[in-house]
Design brief:
By secondary structure, this protein is mainly alpha-helical. The chain folds into 2 domains: about 1-115, Erythroid Transcription Factor GATA-1, Chain A; about 145-440, Retinoid X Receptor. About 60% of the residues lie in helices and about 5% in strands. β1 and β2 (about 55) form a beta hairpin. α6 runs antiparallel to α10, α8 runs antiparallel to α13 (about 325-340) and α11 (about 275-290) crosses α16. The N and C termini lie far apart (about 95 Å). The model is unreliable at about 1-30, about 180-215 and about 225-240 (pLDDT under 50). The chain binds zinc ion (2 copies). One zinc ion binds next to α3. Belongs to the nuclear hormone receptor family.
Length: about 450
């Protein structure tokens, strides 16, 4: 028992002075021994193992002293009471051995009672348990990705790679973009935009990048506001929506890709066809806005999808019938999202979370979709905590982006509706676009 206590106490690197004194019965902490001094038992001369009950002794004499004290044994020397105790004869005369023990300073007060031993043992065990508990709690607080979560992320990343071609090689199959029309203003506008962004980055080269970006953005918007850019005014100038066929094909193509991505989100295909369609119809434009961020360029506020033909400026989108009421917040959204510097894993999770929003119109199995979305949100949060240094606020910012998308969606629907009301424009759309965004013309 005593041995156990001594070992346990010595094993505790940070034992208190009280504990090391009482439990190991040493006046010196083990570390304080001079390792060069030979350790000899003060009783019998055998090899000592340390201070026991206040004296340097061997294990044998330690045990002998404790047993003797506990038994309250009274020994009598069979000789003349002055035996010399050695390692070999120490068993021969208990009386003189015990006398020697007391002579070298061993004290029965240093012996723990069974009760004390038990208490000490309990205390040490309790500390061990508490330590283990603290470790377990620390471990539990440490966010981790379950195998299932890692698998979901891997699936989504793969789904995105399969449905987002960053060479944009399919874009040349769309009806071609037409930027040169009766109105040549757009070209000069684009040109002045470039010089403007160059100028501002020169004159503000000492400022942080974000300031430049903001400057460019505000200048850009001001320019469009000044020049008036509503579809009506363009039409008055004789411009039809020259970019509409190309952008309609681009949107139609993107919808197909979003559908492909959605089908690969774990759990999506198990939903009813009605719910799948309801989710896709209401979120498609939001997911398109999200995924387009990959091509969005902060330097010139354009979506760059390969060559110059497929570099889309705000002016290009106005030539497809959209106004600044959509495009201003859309570009702001793209800038904000870009600046979050999302990792691909976060980007794909955000798209999946957006797609699996239970509060979309027409959704039936609300609870099931909510459960799927919750699990994706948890995965995103765990991922950020684990893999995104300094990402404490990132999750909240990402969720805010989903809220921004709702109002962008609303504005898009409004503008789409007024566009699709006009047969000459709706006839430029594709059957898929009409099906997903709605066909207002009967
Ligand atoms: Zn001894
Ligand atoms: Zn004796």
């Amino acid at each position: 028992m005593q041995c156990y206590i001594n070992r346990a106490a010595a094993g505790h690197a940070k034992t208190s002075v009280m504990e090391s004194t009482v439990v190991s019965t040493s006046t010196l902490a083990p570390d304080e021994f001079d390792r060069n001094v030979p350790r000899i038992c003060g009783v019998c001369g055998d090899k000592a193992t340390g201070f026991h009950f206040n004296a340097m002794t061997c294990e044998g004499c330690k045990g002998f002293f404790r047993r003797s004290m506990k038994r309250k044994a009274a020994f009598t020397c069979p000789f003349n009471g002055s035996c010399t105790i050695t390692k070999d004869n120490r068993r021969h005369c208990q009386a003189c051995r015990l006398k020697r023990c007391v002579d070298i300073g061993m004290m029965k007060e240093f012996i723990l009672t069974d009760e004390e031993v038990q208490r000490k043992k309990d205390l040490i065990q309790r500390r061990k348990d508490e330590e283990a508990q603290r470790e377990a709690e620390k471990e539990a607080r440490r966010p981790r990705l379950s195998d299932e979560q890692s698998q979901v992320i891997a699936t989504l990343v793969e789904a995105h790679h399969k449905t987002y071609d960053d060479s944009y090689s399919d874009f040349c199959r769309f009806r071609p973009p037409v930027r040169e029309g009766p109105v040549t203003r757009s070209a000069s506008r684009a040109a002045s935009l470039h010089s403007l962004s160059d100028a501002s980055s020169d004159s503000f080269s000492h400022s942080p990048e974000s300031v430049d970006t903001k400057m460019n953005f505000n200048n850009l918007l001001m320019m469009y506001h000044e020049q008036g850019n509503s579809p009506d005014s363009s039409e008055e100038e004789g411009s039809s929506f020259s970019m509409l066929p190309h952008l309609a094909d681009l949107v139609s193509y993107s919808i197909q890709k979003v559908i492909g991505f959605a089908k690969m989100i774990p759990g999506f295909r198990e939903l009813t066809a009605e719910d799948q369609i309801a989710l896709l119809k209401s979120s498609a434009i939001e997911v398109i806005m999200l995924r387009s961020n990959q091509s969005f360029n902060l330097e010139d506020m354009s979506w760059s999808c390969g060559g110059p033909d497929f570099k889309y400026q705000i002016s290009d989108v106005t030539k497809a019938g959209h106004t600044l009421e959509l495009l201003e917040p859309l570009v702001k959204f793209q800038v904000g999202l870009k600046k979050l510097n999302l990792q691909e894993e976060e980007h794909v999770l955000l798209m999946a979370i957006c797609l699996l929003s239970p509060d979309r119109p027409g959704v039936q199995d609300h609870a099931r979709i909510e459960a799927l979305q919750d699990s994706l949100s948890e995965t995103l949060q765990a991922y950020i905590q684990l893999r995104h240094p300094g990402g404490q606020l990132l999750y909240a910012k990402m969720i805010q982006k989903l809220a921004d998308l709702r109002s962008l969606n609303e504005e898009h629907s409004k503008q789409y509706r007024s566009l699709s009301f006009q047969p000459e424009h709706s006839m430029q759309l594709t059957p898929l676009v009409l099906e997903v965004f709605g066909s207002e013309v009967s």
